[in-house]
């Protein structure tokens, strides 16, 4: 109280003291804040920016004469060089990162169907839009005809012989009118009344005869490649079977007339009844024994494939599907019967598949080529935090278009249940071996679900440039793709060392050195390097960091000088008062309290005022310093929080100095000196 009264008695002196303290605090806040913000920004830069080396697509192809073969992984010679560089050049390479491919069943969400985008050429790149093409249709046949050749060639050899034999499956071609869609992904346009072309395949004549195909017959039809778009399939169909179409649909059909006449296409086949075939590694196809044992394909991380033989009696029950059933009554009656069991099963599996979404489990989205190239960006919400990535938090990032079409926003919870990819499903195997971008799987009753239902919170929404045209890019993905932290997944994932599934991580700032290393090894552009402009950013930040360090030392020195002046003018000028208090018998504690309190009453409000002024001036000083070195990098620091922190530091140091001054003045040496 006496200290406050003393202040009011000398208002101008007290005011000057407050100004001095405010000036010292402001100098420390501005100088220290600048340096801390710069250091924090530099520390976060390496976490936010990743320098990626992506395998160039051209190196996945091998030209042999007129045949161009695509590998699912880099050829061995390139892999050997890459492994050696990773092992020996840690100064250039941080390591490798693999994204995991998953399929998630989300019953409350509907995917964005490929058929709604870019009719015509779209199908040529999207690997036929798997998995959303399964369909169960009621069809009345308007034409039935044998294909002009014997059938599809299937090569096989027995296990105890190298002799290769050739056998044929049997294929017929039918046209019909779709009466009703019993099961179809809702993104397709209504097919009722449209003309459909059906490719019907069977293992032999007896199996085909059992289907009872006849013109005018009413059938339930199942297929896994239903299409209602124009483009590749129709052109290929016309070119292959034009003569048959002339007989079935009318004579003299041109390609344009055929394109207008046929609205839909679907293959009808139970592939489990056919002899299974697989690449033998030399460009040919091999199959197992005539008893139709089947291959179980298990992909390895390095792109190779383990093959186990599965006996037919174990394979067929898990993978057989319905094909065509001639209806004598209504479809509902047939589906409810014992004969309709396989159809009901197929419809249940379709329900899961039609709500299936491709999921990429990543270390962080920034390690994906699309984000690194800025072809994709988070436009709402945020990226995964470091803690979420470390702890395996169940959070996810969706495309903005997918969220909007399903009425979702950041903060919402979606329930996902992962299910397995199964290479024994013919359509799935073809899709996964021919594409490198993520797609959901066709649900397999054999492989089933991998997890129970898990809730994921939406933390961000992304948007892509030309979202549905990225299919031609091996590093592209569709807007149906959901990103989750890799650490949040506990089940098996599909892994590859190409496309969106793989990136080599370079040390930031080493892009040019790595490119030079490739040139010297004779592999120019084997890896495409992307650093998002990191080198330029770091150079500018280093320049600013040097200026900021200078501003820090100037601020600290100036603040120290101002505080020294304050100590001289205020606590150290209280010697006479301390002597009088000592003469009347005041305890040392009271003398210390008086000196400390009278100066603290000036110091504290001055420091608070200085913190406010320093915080307000911070941005202006930052702008001027950045202009001096031509830098335009937003610094990462909360001005208010940092101002409070530096004011607290200033107060602790200043109060400690006050206490030291009070102790010196009230000690015996101090009293003797004044006497």
Secondary structure topology:
Blueprint (H helix, E strand, L loop, with lengths): L1 H8 L1 H38 L2 E5 L5 E4 L2 E4 L5 H13 L4 E6 L1 E6 L29 E12 L6 E4 L8 E4 L1 E15 L10 E8 L2 H5 L8 E6 L8 H18 L5 H7 L2 E5 L8 E3 L5 E3 L6 E6 L5 E6 L1 H8 L4 E3 L4 H6 L4 H13 L2 E7 L6 H4 L3 E6 L4 H6 L3 E5 H6 L7 E7 L6 H9 L19 E11 L17 E4 L16 E5 L4 H11 L5 E4 L3 H36 L5 H9 L4 H41 L10 H28 L1 H7 L1
Parallel strand pairs: 10-12, 18-23, 20-22
Antiparallel strand pairs: 1-24, 1-25, 2-3, 4-24, 5-18, 5-21, 6-9, 6-11, 7-8, 9-10, 11-17, 13-14, 15-16, 19-22, 21-22
Give a verbal description of the structure.
With 675 residues, this protein is an alpha+beta fold. Helix content is 40%, strand content 22%. It is built from 19 helices and 25 strands. The strands form 7 sheets. Strands 5, 18, 19, 20, 21, 22 and 23 form a 7-stranded mixed β-sheet that branches. It has a 6-stranded mixed β-sheet with strand order 12-10-9-6-11-17, with helices on both faces. A 4-stranded antiparallel β-sheet has the order 4-24-1-25, covered by helices on one side. Strand 2 and strand 3 (67-70) form a beta hairpin. Helix 1 packs across helix 17 (588-628), helix 2 (11-48) packs across helix 17 and helix 17 (588-628) runs antiparallel to helix 18 (639-666). It is elongated and about 125 Å long. Residues 119-127, 150-166 and 277-298 have low confidence and may be disordered.
């Amino acid at each position: 109280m006496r200290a406050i009264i003393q202040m009011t008695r000398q208002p101008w002196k007290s005011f000057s003291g407050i100004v001095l303290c405010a000036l010292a605090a402001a100098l420390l806040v501005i100088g220290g804040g600048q340096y801390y913000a710069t250091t924090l920004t530099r520390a976060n830069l390496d976490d936010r920016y990743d320098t990626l080396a992506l395998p160039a697509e051209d190196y996945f192809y091998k030209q042999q004469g007129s045949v161009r073969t695509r590998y699912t992984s880099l050829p061995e010679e390139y892999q050997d060089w890459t492994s050696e560089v990773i092992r020996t050049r840690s100064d250039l390479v941080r390591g490798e990162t693999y994204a995991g491919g998953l399929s998630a069943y989300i019953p409350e969400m509907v995917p964005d169907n490929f058929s709604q985008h870019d009719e015509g050429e779209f199908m040529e790149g999207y690997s036929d839009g798997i998995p959303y093409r399964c369909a169960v249709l009621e069809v009345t046949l308007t034409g039935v005809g044998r294909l002009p050749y014997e059938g599809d060639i299937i090569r096989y050899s027995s296990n105890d012989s190298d002799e290769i034999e050739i056998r044929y499956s049997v294929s017929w071609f039918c046209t019909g009118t779709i009466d009703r869609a019993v099961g179809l992904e809702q993104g397709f346009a209504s097919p009722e009344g449209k003309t459909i072309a059906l490719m019907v395949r069977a293992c032999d004549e007896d199996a085909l005869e059992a289907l009872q195909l006849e013109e005018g017959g009413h059938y339930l039809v199942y297929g896994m490649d239903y299409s209602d778009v124009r483009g590749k399939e129709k052109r290929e169909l016309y070119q292959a079977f034009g003569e048959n179409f002339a007989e079935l649909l009318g004579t003299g059909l041109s390609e344009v007339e055929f394109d207008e006449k046929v609205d839909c296409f679907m293959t009808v086949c139970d592939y489990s009844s056919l002899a299974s075939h697989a690449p033998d590694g030399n460009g040919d196809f091999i199959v197992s024994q005539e008893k139709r044992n089947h291959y179980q394909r298990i992909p390895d991380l390095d792109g190779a494939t383990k093959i186990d033989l599965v006996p037919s009696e174990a394979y067929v029950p898990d993978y057989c599907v319905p094909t065509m059933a001639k209806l004598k009554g209504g479809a509902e009656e047939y589906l409810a019967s014992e004969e309709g069991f396989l159809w009901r099963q197929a419809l249940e599996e379709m329900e899961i598949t039609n709500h299936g979404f491709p999921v990429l489990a990543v270390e962080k989205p920034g390690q994906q080529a699309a984000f690194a190239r800025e072809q994709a960006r988070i436009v709402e919400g945020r990226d995964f935090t470091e803690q979420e990535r470390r702890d395996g938090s169940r959070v996810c990032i969706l495309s903005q278009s997918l969220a909007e079409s399903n009425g979702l926003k950041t903060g919402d919870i979606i329930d996902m249940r992962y299910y397995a990819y199964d290479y024994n499903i013919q359509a799935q195997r073809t899709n996964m071996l021919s594409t490198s971008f993520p797609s959901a799987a066709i649900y397999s009753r054999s492989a089933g679900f991998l997890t129970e239902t898990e809730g994921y919170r939406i933390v961000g929404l992304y948007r892509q440039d030309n979202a549905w045209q990225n299919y031609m890019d091996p590093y592209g993905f569709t807007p149906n793709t959901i990103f989750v932290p890799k650490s949040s997944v506990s089940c098996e994932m599909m892994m590859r060392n190409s496309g969106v599934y793989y990136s080599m991580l370079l040390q930031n700032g080493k892009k040019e050195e790595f490119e030079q290393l490739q040139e010297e090894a004779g592999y120019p552009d084997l890896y495409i390097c992307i650093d998002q402009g990191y080198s330029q950013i770091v150079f500018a930040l280093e320049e600013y960091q040097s200026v900021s360090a200078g501003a820090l030392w100037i601020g600290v020195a100036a603040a120290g000088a101002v505080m020294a002046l304050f100590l001289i003018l205020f606590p150290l000028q209280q010697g006479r008062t301390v002597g009088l208090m000592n003469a009347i018998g005041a305890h040392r504690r009271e003398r210390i309290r008086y000196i400390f309190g009278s100066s603290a009453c000036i110091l504290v409000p001055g420091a608070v005022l200085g913190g406010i002024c320093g915080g307000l001036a911070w941005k202006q000083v930052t702008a001027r310093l950045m202009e001096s070195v031509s830098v335009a990098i937003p610094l990462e620091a909360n001005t208010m929080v940092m101002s409070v922190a530096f004011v607290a530091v200033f107060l602790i140091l200043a109060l400690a100095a006050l206490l030291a001054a009070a102790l010196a003045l009230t000690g015996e040496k101090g009293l003797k000196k004044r006497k």
